[in-house]
Amino acid sequence: MASGMEIRLDGKRALVTGAGKGIGREIAALLAQCGARVVAVSRTATDLNSLAREIGCETFAVDLGDAAAALAAAQAALAAGPVDLLVNNAGISIPQPFLQTTVEAFDRTINVNVRAAMLISQVVAGALIARGAAGSIVNLSSQASMVGLTDHAAYCASKGALDQLTRVMALELGPHQIRVNAVNPTVTLTPMGAMAWGDPKKAGPMLAKIPLGRFAQPADVARAVAYLLSDSADMVHGVTLPVDGGFLAV
Which of 64, 85, 116, 178 could be cross-linked to 14 through a Cys-Cys bond (beta carbons 3.0 to 4.6 Å apart)? Predict the structure, then answer.
């Protein structure tokens, strides 16, 4: 960070979904470094256990594709203490050609990527309003909300919906001093991303569309999230922030 721009989140309790792996894990670790008390939500208990050993977070293992379970996890996190910051990071992708996109894959993608974000945000924002507290919510979207990707009909639709959800949340929660923004990364080299994009034949055409000539690292995304959560972004509200090396400028 530039001088005078160190991000501090001391005294804040931050709920991060999809915190077990990849970008979510990087976000959880960075928020802990910034002084926040982290509540990590993920589907896989072993991932959460190792994260808790690393950063000392609270954990809740839950499948966010299950609406009742998602609500219960959010309510349990709030029962253990107030939540000031929320990162709706959990997301899935089930690549299928458009003509072969199944109802099951479409519904599951929407349920995890959009519905869970709505439900958890309702619980967290409702509690913030009840105690008259300001807060900040960041939704993890994607460049796939703004451009079409082959074999990603359900995923692109879900991220487009998440961007619009972000805007409506910003409109309605802003008067309560709850800021809501989205971060829209390009291909990010998580272990899963590195595996998917490790083939130069596949990576080359995508890299050619990125003026900086490289994919994002999880830390690039995590730093953008930490900034948007912090008081340094006090007047940033309702944005969809590309972290894409200029992909959308081409």
Answer: 85
- Using alpha carbons, select from 70, 200, 93 the residue that is nearest to residue 153: 93
Task: Supply the residues annotated as catalytic.
Answer: 155, 159
* 83 in Cβ contact with 39 (< 8 Å): yes
| Residue position matching structure tokens 């829209």 | 184
Place of tokens 């008067």: 175
DSSP string, 182-238: EEEE-SB-SHHHHHHT-SHHHHHHHHHT-TT-SPBPHHHHHHHHHHHHSGGGTT--S
Tokens standing for 1?
């960070």
The CA distance from 122 to 50, in Å, is 29
Beta-bridged to residue 135, according to DSSP, are 178
Specify the long-range contacts of residues 202-210, CB closer than 8 Å, at least 24 apart: 209/247, 209/250, 210/186, 210/244, 210/245, 210/246, 210/247, 210/250
Please give the domain boundaries of the chain with CATH numbers for all domains: 13-234 (3.40.50.720)
Give the pLDDT confidence of 96-134 residue by residue, as tens digits.
999 999 999 999 999 999 999 999 999 999 999 999 999
The candidate with the shortest Cα–Cα distance to 66, out of 36, 108, 29, 27, is 108
Q: What is the pLDDT of residues 48-93, one digit of tens each?
A: 999 999 999 999 999 999 999 999 999 999 999 999 999 999 999 9
